[in-house]
Amino acid sequence: MPESRPSAPLIDTKPEGKRPAPGPAPAAARRGPRAHPALVMLGIVLASLNMRAALAGVSPLMGEIGDHFHLAAAASSLVTTIPLVFMGLGSIVAPRLARRWGTEAVLCGALVLLGCGILLRVAPPVVALFVGCALVGTAIALLNVLMPGLVKRDFPDRAASMTALYSTTLILGATGAAASSVPLEHALGGWQGSLASWALLAAVAALVWLPQAVLARRGRDGGAPAAAPRQDATAGPDLLRSPIAWQVTLMMGTQSLIAYVCIAWMPTVFTDNGMSRNEAGMVYAFYTLVQMAGSFVVPLLAGRMRDQRLPAAGVVLLMAAGVTGLLTAPVAGAWVWATLMGVAQGGLLGLALTLMVLRTRDAHTASRLSGMAQTWGYLLASVGPFAIGAVHQATDSWTLPIALLLVACAALFLLGLGAGRDRKI
To answer: Are 91 and 141 in contact (CB under 8 A)?
Structure first.
């Protein structure tokens, strides 16, 4: 669906930071043969399904994994923490790899790496479990960072709707993995089969990207200027000196922190307040499911506006309302709070990804901003579950930890007002 505000006219009467000098990179990016848009879209959908499935499929099986390897609780938590850390570290190299080898080739390679990491996690030595987690996190980092630039390059007039598509598909993959992990465990004879099954999804996605990588590589070798692949990956505006780039980065990081705190502790909050484990699991699954609504609708609305401050404020207030309910009546209104927080969480993710596209002038800068936002964002997010758990352990209560999420919401509100302004980096 075409957006009412196409991203092709990139003239900004109030530029923020240093405007990039025109160079060969954008032109080169568009030269040479390209795959049919339908094949690109299919590749985006399949890659998006893989971007969280390998992580979400672990949480329901943490007990079995810990028992199998005789891991203490702290060591077991590394199964979810290591991928998150490497999602931040791997984001640093993604734009450089894309400039050297091409976006399609790196996406294909990331999916192969993801499949290998998934399989390595079920190998007998415990060290293979942790190395596999690192590979999974690195592969997801590459997918995370390159997707906004790909959307900006191949779908410039439908950037917001394509972002809505892949962010919604991402959440669909996470929801499906979380819901099917235990049934797959029973059907395949153990947690190893359940985890390993997600390598098949990665393999299918890699096969779709393989011909696109070959075609794009031929175009680069045959038609693109020789200097284009060797252009400095840091060419363009200085993102580290851009207030808007930092606002988008911190917005991405803060919403990710809230998301991973909920992944780690939401069911425990419910059970500690008297809810059964089965119902707590159902409420958490519902919270994950309704994220699709926010992740689809909010980017579409944001793409139709010149200024995104209103949707930013709206989703943050929705999140704050859900967190307040969780603080005051966690069990009595659990389904309501899960709905509010889930819709808001999906909307925040979709909006953060959309702003990486809308706040930049070209695909190269969009990829660089995505790399910056997701590097610092996931490193910030990795602190959240540990910090909230430590505060809970120190106070023996969930009151202060949940109140700290309200502080994060206040920060998100201010960051959204800054990043939502109609400016270009």
So the answer is: yes
Q: List, in order, residues 6 or more apart from 339 with CB less than 8 Å away.
A: 286, 287, 290, 322
Task: Tokens for 286, please give them.
Answer: 């519902």
Residue 274 neighbours by CB distance under 10 Å: 8
Give the integer Cα–Cα distance in Å for 210 and 106: 10
The rounded distance, in Å, linking the Cα atoms of 275 and 221 is 60
Residue 286 to residue 335: CA distance in whole angstroms: 8
Residue 254 in contact with residue 408, Cβ under 8 Å?
yes
For residue 133, which of 202, 84, 91, 204 has the smallest C-alpha distance?
A: 84
- 230: its two tokens: 């060797």
Give the span between the Cα atoms of 57 and 174, in whole angstroms: 7
Give the Cβ contact number of residue 354 at 10 Å: 28
∠325-330-335 over CA atoms, to 5°?
A: 80
The one-letter code for the residue type at 137 is G
> Cα separation of 396 and 417, whole Å?
35
Q: What is the pTM of this model?
A: 0.73
| Residue 127 DSSP one-character state | H
CB 185 within 8 A of CB 31: no
- Secondary structure (DSSP) of 188-219: HTSHHHHHHTHHHHHHHHHHHHHHHHHHHHHH
Is residue 399 helix, strand or coil?
helix
| pLDDT digit string (tens) for the chain, length 425 residues | 444 444 444 334 444 444 444 443 433 344 456 667 888 889 999 999 998 888 878 877 777 788 888 876 567 767 877 888 898 888 888 878 888 888 899 999 999 999 999 999 998 889 999 999 999 999 999 998 888 778 878 888 787 788 778 878 888 888 888 778 878 988 998 989 999 999 999 999 999 999 988 888 776 665 544 334 444 555 677 888 889 999 999 999 999 999 988 877 888 888 889 988 678 777 887 888 899 899 888 988 888 888 899 999 999 999 999 999 999 999 999 999 999 999 999 999 889 988 988 888 887 788 788 878 888 888 888 888 778 888 888 888 999 999 999 999 999 999 999 999 988 88
Query: Do residues 210 and 89 touch, judged by C-beta distance below 8 A?
Result: no
**Rounded-to-integer distance, Cα 353 and Cα 160, Å:** 9
